[in-house]
Design brief:
Immunoglobulin-like, 5-stranded antiparallel sheet, globular, mainly beta, 827 residues, 35% strand
Length: 827
């Protein structure tokens, strides 16, 4: 009896000791205290606790964990993330682990006893010089990029996805027969082994490969840019995307019928084979090609710069981007109505056949001032509607010799509608098919059209030049409009406040203009002497004839003791209000806060979100584009373009004010502001004088729903320099009861790698508390990627291999929290 009791006691002590384990790593202990608090007593882990045995997901990314001793007791764990930690040892992993991310750690090597259940392993950027000699039998995906590997052999037998880009690999001995995706870009390879029969994607760019093996019939994407290829094997019928830029290829094989993208720039091609109807992207710049085959109807991008092409074929109706500079061209064919980008400098071209409504360019892009080819010019269109827009001063519907032209008006042709823009001389040319049309101008506020719609019949090869569209102002309107814009207020510095009052009516107004400035700022000076100043209230008197603009620039000072974040509110009012047609726009406010550093070129809106009721009511959105010449010499001209997304009603755009004399026009959905002869000084010689702004307003589209986001940005050109592209202005849409004051709460996001080649991982500093989604937009505001997010999710992956290289903008939304940021994609 006594012996049995002692034996039971000894066994109990042994079992109890085995169930307790000391966690020695402080960072690991801190993480476990969050996820399994009930299993810990100080630093002692109860290894039999239910929360330990049932835990299936553990995210330790960026946690500072150096030692995982004790992880083996989490026998139910199938997902483990230790990315970006100082971890140097992976021994003792749980036996059921399926997903492991140990990228950007201090491991230097992988153990040979990884769990047999492992299916996914990311070991990128850990200094690997070799891979394990044995692998889990079920490993399907291996990411081992950005290491120091030199030879690949004995790879996992069931592997389907392999990323080994950015290593020093010079030899791949053999590839698993199950492999679907291979990315071995940016290595030292001179050749490849036999390719698996089911391979879908092969990325082997930036190597020294001179010959490719036979390509499997299943291959859909082939990336071989920056190699030493002189020819290609037969292309498989499943191929959809082919990238071979910067090789020495002299001829292309027959292109598969389903090919959608062909990038073959910087080779030694002298001709192209026939291109399939499926092609939507064709980039063949910097070759020796002297002619192009017929282009498919669905082509959206044609890049043929730096060749020997004397004439372009008919351009497809869906073409959006055309780059044909540095060719012996003298004329362009009719430009498609949807063309957005055009570059044709260093050619013999001196005029445009027509100007599509949405096209954007600079004089440096064209090599000449944007004018339409005159009638009789060899490059003028043979089948088009041609005309002029003028200001009809006597309202007789006929253009008299003394009546001026009206530049940048918008012309509409029905049926269609087909929209064209007038050039600086008021001329327009709109290419059309044969048929009967009505030609008219679009309405302009406070103007009437004095001419009736022109009926035009186009026969084959005919150009009709009979359309002359007249406008006249409507008299008898009283309408003063106020606007106020300000530069950033900074402690210890001065800033400018721009005031403007526009007489948008047709009768002279004697205006009384009052400015109330913020209490934390003091008045320094004004470009127009005030009639009265009483503390922070300043008054001017002005007589404004019709269409006149009163403007004044006020200099304010902010004391160095004013804390950052202090509220700044200025109020501007122009009276009298009693006779004003629209008194609501006579009083305006500027609301901001005191800041430290800031972006001198930005696009702002006081609207941080809209609810669905405001959307249904077509709410107005004000946008301010601020710019500053941060160069080293004055800028003679400034040009700003803004491609308006479909989430805004382009036809409702209203110019409000500008810091300098500005011209503006809207072509399709492209809004252009031109400030010629601005002579804007550089910021070093004149910090305040180097700044400027444009202010306009526009109505939101009424078909947006909760979850949509308005994304908009601007391009700012200083003389002939490349544009400065502003950060996007993002305005989310939500149900009225889903957005309150808390909508400004931010989600912390880390993005890596950035730039991204094939994928990027977004990691949230706090796991999401509720479901949400991730949206990715390109630079034109077009949706490129959208994926749902789950409550508790701590990271998500964006696949970028299918995206066109360039800058993208992401929006993360979860409940009443959101985040925005940029992602650069390169291949």
């Amino acid at each position: 009896m006594t012996r049995n009791f002692l034996l039971g006691a000894i066994l109990g002590i042994a079992i109890n000791t085995q169930a307790q384990y000391i966690i020695s790593d402080p960072a690991f202990l801190a993480e476990l205290q969050v996820v399994v608090p009930g299993a810990l007593s100080g630093n002692v882990l109860d290894t039999t606790h239910a929360s330990v045995l049932s835990l299936d997901h553990l995210d330790l990314a960026s946690s500072g964990v150096m030692d995982l001793d004790g992880i083996r007791f989490f026998t139910g764990l199938d997902t483990l993330n230790v990315r970006n930690t100082p971890l140097s040892d992976l021994n003792g992993l749980p036996p059921q682990l399926k997903w492991l991310d140990c990228a950007s750690t201090d491991l230097l090597a992988l153990p040979n006893d990884l769990p047999d259940s492992l299916e996914f392993l990311d070991c990128s950027n850990i200094g690997l010089t070799s891979l394990p000699s044995t692998w889990p039998a079920g490993l399907r995906e291996l990411l081992a990029g950005s290491n120091d590997l030199t030879v690949l052999s004995d790879l996992p037998p069931a592997l389907e996805i392999l990323y080994v880009n950015f290593n020093d690999i010079f030899l791949i001995v053999q590839l698993p027969s199950t492999l679907l995706v291979l990315d071995c870009q940016s290595n030292d390879l001179t050749g490849l082994p036999a390719l698996p029969p089911g391979l879908v994607r092969l990325g082997a760019g930036v190597n020294q490969i001179s010959v490719l093996p036979a390509l499997p019939a299943t291959l859909e994407e082939l990336v071989m840019s920056y190699n030493d290829l002189t020819n290609l094997p037969a292309l498989p019928p499943a191929l959809r995307e082919l990238y071979i830029s910067s090789n020495s290829v002299v001829a292309l094989p027959t292109l598969p019928n389903g090919l959608t993208k062909l990038s073959a720039g910087s080779n030694q091609l002298s001709a192209l084979p026939n291109v399939p109807d499926s092609l939507n992207y064709l980039y063949i710049a910097w070759n020796q090609i002297d002619s192009l085959p017929p282009l498919p109807d669905g082509l959206t991008l044609l890049g043929c710069s730096g060749n020997l092409i004397p004439e372009l074929p008919t351009l497809p109706a869906q073409l959006e981007e055309l780059y044909c500079n540095q060719n012996p061209l003298t004329c362009l064919p009719a430009l498609p109505a949807g063309l957005l980008s055009l570059v044709c400098n260093n050619t013999g071209i001196t005029c445009l056949p027509n100007i599509p409504a949405g096209v954007t360019y600079t004089p440096s892009d064209l090599g000449f001032q944007p004018v339409i080819c005159a009638a009789g010019d060899p490059c003028a269109l043979e089948q088009a509607i041609r005309g002029v827009v003028f200001l009809d001063l006597n309202s007789d519907g006929v253009q008299d010799p003394t009546e001026p032209v009206m530049p940048h008006a918008v012309i509409e042709v029905l049926p269609g509608p087909i929209v064209g823009g007038a050039d600086v001389n008021g001329a327009f040319v709109i290419p059309v098919d044969t048929g009967n049309y009505l030609v008219d101008g679009r309405m302009k506020q406070y103007h009437t059209i004095t001419t009736s719609p022109f009926q035009v019949t186009i026969t084959p090869g005919e150009t009709d030049s009979s359309s002359a569209i007249g406008y006249q102002a409507i008299p008898g309107i009283h309408d003063l409009r106020s606007d106020i814009q300000a530069g950033p207020a900074r402690p210890g510095f001065e800033n400018l406040v721009h005031l403007s009052v526009t007489n948008a009516g047709t009768d002279t107004s004697a205006a009384v203009i009052d400015l109330s400035i913020a209490a934390d700022q003091s008045f320094d000076s004004a470009t127009v002497m005030p009639a009265m100043q009483n503390g922070n209230m300043i008054t001017w008197n002005a007589v404004l004839p019709p269409n006149a603009i009163w403007s004044c620039v006020v200099t304010l000072a902010t004391d160095a003791a004013i804390p950052l974040g202090s509220s700044i509110t200025h109020v501007l009012e122009a009276g009298p209000l009693a006779i004003d047609t629209v008194p609501q726009d006579n009083t305006v406010s500027w609301v901001s806060e005191v800041v430290g550093s800031y972006d001198p070129n930005d696009k702002l809106s006081p609207v941080s979100y809209l609810n669905t009721v405001e959307v249904q009511n077509a709410e107005w959105i004000d946008y301010t584009i601020r710019f500053q010449n941060t160069g080293t010499f004055l800028a003679e001209n400034v040009l700003i373009t803004d491609t308006l997304p479909a989430s805004l009603q382009a036809a409702t755009v209203q110019y409000v004010s500008a810091s300098h004399n500005a011209l503006w026009h809207l072509d399709g959905n492209v809004l252009t502001f031109s400030l010629p002869g601005i002579l804007l000084p550089d910021s070093a010689s004149d910090p305040l004088g180097s700044q400027g702004y444009i202010h306009f307003r526009i109505q939101v589209a009424t078909n947006l729903i909760s979850g949509d986001t308005i994304v908009n940005r601007a391009n700012i050109f200083f003389d002939f320099n490349d544009p400065i592209i502003t950060e996007p202005s993002t305005i989310p849409i939500a149900f009225p009861d889903h957005i309150g004051d808390a909508h400004t709460l931010a989600i912390g996001v880390q993005v890596a790698p950035n730039p991204a080649h094939d994928h990027a991982v977004l990691r949230f500093t706090e796991c999401l508390s509720g479901p949400g989604d991730l949206l990715l937009y390109d630079e034109l505001g077009r949706g490129a990627w959208r994926t749902p997010l789950s409550a508790g999710q701590c990271a998500t992956t964006i696949t970028t291999s299918d995206l066109v290289p360039g800058m993208y903008y992401f929006v993360v939304r979860s409940g009443n929290r959101h985040a925005t940021g940029k992602l650069s994609v390169t291949h």
